[in-house]
Structure formats: C-alpha cells, structure tokens
Amino acid sequence: MYKTLVQLAEDAAILVHMIMRGNPTRLPVLTALAALVFQVVLAANGAAQAPERAKAQTFTLGIVSEIHRAQIEGHFQDFVRYVAGKLSAAPDFEGKVMIAPSAFQLARLIEQKKVDLYMESPYPTYLVNEMHGAAKLLLRRWKSGMAEYRSFIFTKNNGEVSRLEDLRGKIFVFEDPGSTSGHFLAKSFLLKKGFKFADKSRFDPHGSPTAVGYVFAYSQAKLVDMVLAKQAAAGAFSDDDYAKLDEKKKSAITILAESARCMKTSRGGEF
Fold first, then answer.
1. Nearest Cα to Cα of residue 92 among 57, 59, 54, 50
2. Cα–Cα distance for residue pair 22/228, rounded to 1 Å
3. Where are the alpha helices (DSSP H) in the chain?
4. How many C-alpha atoms does 17 have within 13 Å on its Cβ side?
5. CATH code for the domain in which residue 183 is found
6. CA-based diameter of the chain, in Å?
7. Mode of pairing for the β-strands spanning 94-100 and 58-64
C-alpha cells in the first residue's frame, strides 16, 4: 500500500506540472490536491513504521516521590528488570521505573496506561485506588521484615512540650505529604483529638492562634534534627524509624503518643 501511495504522489506531481503548463490559474486547486496526497503518504509512512515502534515493549513500575528521584529509580531498577524478565523472554521487553511527584499524577499515569504496577505505602495507595479509582490492590508487601507499623509523635526532652495539649499554637514537622507514618497517621490521630492544622508555607491572616502549624522536612533524619534543634516543637515518624535511631538521639526525645497500627506497603495496578 505504501509503495502505491508513493507512486500516486509522483503521478500527482507530474499531473500538476502538465496542467500548470496549460492553465496556471488552477494553482490553488492543484496545490490542495498535492497537499492531500502528501498527507496520505505521511499517514501511510507512519502506519508502516508503527509495527517497528510496537516491538519495544516495557513493564513500568510507578513510585510517588517529590525528591531523590534518581536514587529511587536506581533502587528499584533491578526489581523491574527481574519482573520484566519473568513476564516476557523477548530481548526487547524491558522494565523501567517512573517517578510521579504526587498520588494524583501517578493515578493519571495509570489511567493513561503509562504505568503497569505501582508500589506504595497505605496512604498513597488509598488516594490512587479509592479517591481516584485508577487501580486496585493486588498484593501486600512486608518491608524490612515487618508487616505493620505505627506512627510515633515525639518531642525533645525537657522542652516546652510535655503533652499533646502543649502542641496548640506550635510548629509540627511531618516527613513528606505522601508519607503514611510520617504524615497521614499522625495527622489523622491528632485531628481525631480535636486539633486543627495550618500550613505554615501559606500565610493566613485569619488563621487560628491555637492551630498547629506544620511544615515538611522531606527527610526522616532532617525531621529528627529539626525537633532536637527546636526548629519544631514535635514531629512524627514510624516505630521502625525510631528503632533505627542511635542511642544518643533516642535518649534525647520523648514519645508523646502513638497511632493505631497500619500495614506496611502494598502493590497495586490496572490488571
């Protein structure tokens, strides 16, 4: 079909030349004819090349993160190669990692069929599956040998906070917006206790003076350091993050409260 259309284009060009010699006033009509034939040829060319592009198939794993994208991609690269090898023996079938900055954008990638499977903690999984309806839960994964975890709300020893009520009007540091133990569990726990929150990155002239102002550290290590340096009155992290602290830092903080337990991580996709 492609060769036939190319020949048609060549014939049309000859026809244009012959008619132009006899009647130059027909230029607009002939130009339109030539353009139409040219577009058909381009479409045929694209169709002919499509099978070649289709040969390069991928299995794509989605992850949510606003930071450290290169490190995260490298961390999961061996995993996606392994899965791709199990899915197909074709040499051009490859695995890749795609990092989305938010659960909403991950849901969009799944809907656009640019992501086949994703791995996330419960909160982003809830947003992708339930709020956006983009995927479904397939597997529950243990992480670091643990099936469940909980959030600890902590403060610096001998500071101005000795109980939860002391948090009103103060600064609280969360890990990052998509963290289950370092954000969602702790905030949900405090909201149920009647606390109100105010995003300190936004100025609100009508904000409540008793609201808990919050910021994000985007790092578990930085989060702890901010509390110890009194840049924040309290913070939140998981019980296994607490277990990994060195003894000096453990002895410098007090656990104010702990949330209910939650499953570690999950895998979802549009299968």
1. 57
2. 90
3. 2-22, 27-54, 69-87, 103-111, 122-126, 185-192, 220-228, 239-244, 247-250
4. 6
5. 3.40.190.10
6. 100
7. parallel
Q: Which domain holds residue 39?
A: 2-54
Please give the helix or strand (H or E) that residue 130 lies within, else none: none
pLDDT band at 143 (very low <50, low <70, confident <90, very high): low
Residues 6+ apart with CB under 8 A from 8: 37, 40, 41
Structural domain tally of the chain? 3
Q: What digits encode the pLDDT tens for the residues 4-49?
A: 444 444 444 444 444 444 444 444 444 443 343 334 334 445 544 4
> Within 10 A of 129 (CB to CB), how many other CB atoms are there?
20
The one-letter amino acid at 57? Q
Q: What is the pTM (predicted TM-score) of this model? A: 0.56
Q: What is the mean pLDDT of residues 207-221?
A: 91
Asked if 76 and 98 touch (Cβ cutoff 8 Å), the reply is no
Residue 260 has pLDDT above 60, yes or no: yes
* Number of helical H runs and strand E runs in the chain: 9, 13
Determine, yes or no, domain membership for 141: no
For residues 14 and 49, state if they share a domain. yes
> For residue 183, what are the contacts with CB-CB under 8 A and spacing of at least 6?
123, 174, 175, 176, 177, 216, 236
Note whether 258 and 223 are same-domain residues: yes
Whether 199 maps to a domain, the answer reads yes
